[in-house]
């Protein structure tokens, strides 16, 4: 089998034998594919409970409610269904994918694609599982729905790669701001650390953190202030202000109150 990415699927590939089922398991139920490799590849969404996987090597993995797994054909493992507060149930959709020469797969071992699977992606699998009657019309609809599901996975992978790239780009600035909370370094200097122009840096930083560099820096200062106020009663509020690089104590108190909802003195007395 050859491994490909979701985004690489094209009209040259044949997608077939799509079949879905909703499964409910008694806690402690297990299936053993060691010595009898799994005959089909598929996607499993854990609706409730948990599953534990053990490989022939002794390596183990555990997956829980909300996880979406990909299981390749030929994989050897033992799966055990666990209660985890509620009985275990899952949506399982098996399929085959090939080109003119060989069968294709998305990985060579069980992988968790999503830890918290969005409802619209679960909906695609649920629709297939609830409509797996052996009629041509239903099969064609399920094939279309499954293709839509794979498109969503391709979009998800693209976003993950983009997020990872953005994270790498702004990581030096985030590291600096977390390590030097007292610093009032400019956005231009932070952008230079990341080898980005200021506009690109601002955009990438907000995309990754959800806030501007200035907002992130101020949040880091306030979190450090809360720690100092709670753990070091011998340090005055003026000293805390100086340590964190505020203009003066009144400015620090004003910013702290706006963010936390109470003055530094009130916060210190309550913790």
Short description:
The protein is built from 8 helices and 11 strands.
Describe the structure.
- The protein has helices at 119-130, 136-179, 187-193, 198-209, 213-231, 237-243, 249-260, 264-270; strands at residues 2-3, 14-25, 30-32, 41-48, 50-54, 60-64, 68-71, 78-82, 88-98, 104-105, 111-114.
- It has 271 residues and is an alpha+beta fold.
- The chain has 2 domains: 2-160, Jelly Rolls (Sandwich); 215-270, Orthogonal Bundle (Arc Repressor Mutant, subunit A).
- Helix 1 packs antiparallel against helix 2, helix 2 crosses helix 4 and helix 6 (237-243) packs across helix 7 (249-260).
- 21% of the residues are buried.
Per-chain topology:
Layout: E1 2-3, E2 14-25, E3 30-32, E4 41-48, E5 50-54, E6 60-64, E7 68-71, E8 78-82, E9 88-98, E10 104-105, E11 111-114, H1 119-130, H2 136-179, H3 187-193, H4 198-209, H5 213-231, H6 237-243, H7 249-260, H8 264-270
Parallel strand pairs: 1-10
Antiparallel strand pairs: 2-9, 3-8, 4-7, 4-9, 5-6, 5-8, 7-11
**Would you give the CATH topology of the largest domain?**
Jelly Rolls
Helical region count? Answer: 8
Low-pLDDT runs of 5+ residues are none
Q: Structurally, how many domains make up the residues? A: 2
Using the CA coordinates, give the radius of gyration: 26 Å
CATH architecture term of the largest domain:
Sandwich
CATH 4th-level superfamily of the largest domain: Jelly Rolls
Category from helices, strands and their pairing? alpha+beta
| Beta-strand segment tally | 11
The 3D shape can be described as elongated
Please give the order of strands in the largest beta sheet: 2-9-4-7-11
Q: Assess the beta-strand content as a share of residues.
A: 15-25%
User: In which range does the helix fraction lie?
Assistant: 40-55%
Order of helices and strands: EEEEEEEEEEEHHHHHHHH
Cα-to-Cα separation, first versus last residue:
60 Å
Mean pLDDT: 89
Per CATH, the class of the largest domain reads: Mainly Beta
């Amino acid at each position: 089998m050859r491994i490909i990415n979701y985004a690489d699927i094209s009209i040259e590939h044949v997608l077939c034998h799509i079949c879905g089922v909703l499964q409910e398991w008694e806690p402690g139920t297990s299936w053993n594919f060691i010595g009898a490799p799994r005959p089909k590849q598929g996607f499993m969404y854990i609706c409730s409970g948990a599953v534990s996987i053990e490989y022939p090597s002794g390596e183990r993995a555990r997956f829980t409610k909300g996880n979406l797994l990909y299981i390749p054909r030929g994989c050897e493992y033992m799966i055990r269904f666990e209660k985890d507060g509620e009985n275990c149930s899952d949506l399982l959709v098996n399929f085959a994918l090939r080109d003119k020469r060989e069968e294709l797969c998305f990985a060579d071992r069980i992988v968790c694609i999503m830890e918290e699977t969005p409802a619209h992606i679960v909906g695609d699998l649920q629709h297939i599982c609830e409509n797996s009657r052996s009629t041509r019309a239903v099969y064609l609809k399920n094939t279309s729905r499954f293709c839509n599901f794979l498109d969503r996975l391709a979009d998800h992978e693209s976003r993950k790669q983009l997020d990872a790239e953005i994270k790498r780009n702004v990581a030096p600035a985030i590291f600096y701001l977390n390590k030097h909370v007292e610093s009032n370094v400019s956005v231009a200097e932070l952008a230079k650390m990341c080898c980005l122009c200021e506009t690109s840096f601002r955009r990438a930083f907000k995309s990754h953190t959800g806030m501007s560099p200035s907002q992130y820096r101020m949040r880091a200062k306030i979190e450090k202030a809360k720690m100092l106020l709670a753990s070091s009663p011998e340090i005055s509020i003026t000293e805390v202000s100086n340590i964190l690089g505020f203009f003066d104590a009144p400015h620090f108190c004003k910013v702290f109150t706006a963010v936390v909802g109470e003055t530094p003195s009130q916060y210190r007395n309550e913790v």
